Amino acid sequence: MGIAVHGDLYFWVTRGIARRAGVSIDAAMHDGRLPRAAFLRMVERCQACPRAEDCLTYLAYPRGADPSRAGKPCQNALILAELRALAPAVTE
Question: How far apart are CA 52 and CA 9, in angstroms?
């Protein structure tokens, strides 16, 4: 029995996978690296992905869990890598 389809689910899966990839969706949108329309396309790609349930399983494990539990290949991997590369440097 699969997971019941609900639009909000993929919003949260997309954000969770981004967070695990080291990307803050909020920060990326706030500083202009990620337009709202681009984020909505990310959510749509997640919703259309046949491996989204694998990502839910991965997100259920604590940080540091084996990343092979996530759906491979991630439909949003390229944009997540770009967002991570464009993130402002953190200075202390």
Answer: 10
